[in-house]
Amino acid sequence: MAPMGIRLSPLGVAVFCLLGLGVIYHLYAGVISSRIAAFTQKRTVDLRELLALSIEAAVQGGREVKKVREENTLQEKTKGKTKEGASEKLTLGDLNSHRKMYYLIKNTYPYVKVNSEEHYVTDVELGVWNKEIPDDILQKVEGGKAVPADSITIWIDPLDATQEYTEDLLKYVTTMVCVAVDGKPIIGVIHRPFTGNTAWALVPEKSNVKARATYNMISPKVIISRSHAGKVKGFIREAFGNSTVILPGGGAGYKVLSLLDPIDKDIEEADMYIHVTFIKKWDICAGDALLTALGGHMTTLKGEQIDYSGAAGNEGGLLASIKLDHKALVEKLPAFSADKN
Asked: How many CA atoms lie within 13 A of 281 on its CB side?
């Protein structure tokens, strides 16, 4: 006699399947709902942690910059021309620093937007932040200040002053990180690879650097770009007179440091920083945050605030000052047109 089997009618099959789905739902509904909630929940980032990460990224990038220069393995190339017609250099120092800085940040906060001067992509994941916060930040900055991740744009300059780097004018070289929230610079880090010193700030009023005691508005020392000067000298002398001292300097990071109480003895002192041609935002964002935290200003030549959430370039020129009447400085400047400079 053949063994008897259990046969279900189509209706029975349907009921069995529904019962099975019900059991699965009750088993996994909590897991699924928590996963959905985690996915849809608005991510936030703690600003103190982001400041510490930004410093670590700038320092690690700086080590790469220094190593390539000391080993003389620059592999110098030209990646094009600036708007003023100057050759725009690219070295192994730029690329290696970019990889360290960019991936350290992206591996830590993959959901945060990061804009870098370089665009080198690698399949190798380089570095994860160890979440260590330096003592001076722990002492000066309180934790728990979180901002939505989708409001953040991070600007990194893996090697500021590449032209000077190739010429062995190393005092001008910096690595920089800036964090903008809703387009406003909130965190600024400027690191000097060849001295090892770092200036940082968190807006408002938290910094490891300070302004100098005095500045001169009547007969100022004005620092400008040595490689992208444009028509800036005539522009400055028309504003402040022929006796104005004009200091050429390399790198936007170095120029901002020249406005502060020097972190190193080899930094020249200037009263203001002026630029009249196109400049990229990864060059200036960190300096903007530093000056803002110390009560200074970095604006276009018309006195407008610079937005750090949109396009990568600033067309409106640049005026940076601290402890001076910034509005009065803007009023002294001749009429500015980006098309003429």
From this structure: 24
What is the three-class DSSP state of 108? Answer: helix
Each residue's pLDDT tens digit, 12-70: 544 444 445 454 444 344 434 433 333 435 799 999 999 999 999 999 999 999 999 99
Q: How many domains does the chain have?
A: 2
Return the structure tokens found at 232.
């800036």
Both 203 and 321 in one domain: the answer is no
Exposed, middle or buried by CB within 10 Å (0-12, 13-18, 19+), for 323? middle
- Residue 160 labeled ligand binder: yes
> 242: domain range?
221-340
SS3 label, residue 105: helix
Flag whether 157 is marked binding: yes
Distance of CA 238 to the CA centre of its chain: 33
| Residue 46 is assigned to a ligand binding site | no
Query: Considering the domain boundaries, does residue 256 fall inside one?
Result: yes
Structure confidence by residue, pLDDT tens digits, 182-202: 999 999 999 999 999 999 999
CA distances from 125 to 100, 110, 111 (A): 10, 12, 15
Is 117 annotated for ligand binding? Answer: yes
